[in-house]
Amino acid sequence: MTINPDLNPGDITNDPIVNEVVKLILDRHIQGMNKFGKTMEANDRPLDQWIAETIEELLDAVHYLTKAKSITDKFKGKEKLLNELLAKAKEDTFTVKDNDVHTEEKI
Question: For the CA atoms of 74, 76, 81, 83, what is the dihedral angle to 10 degrees?
Fold first, then answer.
């Protein structure tokens, strides 16, 4: 396995997202080389095994994304509740009650 030691994935483009993807690809390549000891090009598994492996990986990705979505949905629900409570607190904070007349006046 050879990777140019002068290569800095963070400096490939002016887009930090693309640079992060390149870094992830290189890190994954190194991990695969350490585990399997050969490049993708040198791996001559049958096509049906590549397809089966891809299906398994994509199914795992669906699980991960579904879990991540459930977490963001919970946060959105809590954010909505927090915003409602904050609006109520602001409303109560900026309201003056006139106890003699029993009316409320907004400031």
Answer: 150
From the CA atom positions of the chain, what is the Rg in Å? 28
14 lies in some domain? yes
Model confidence pLDDT, tens digit, residues 46-91? 999 999 999 999 999 999 999 999 999 999 989 989 999 999 888 8
Residue 5 DSSP one-character state = T
- Our count of domains for the chain comes to 1
User: Is residue 3 assigned to a domain?
Assistant: yes
Query: Is the residue at 5 inside a domain?
Result: yes
The mean pLDDT of 89-99, rounded to a whole number, is 73
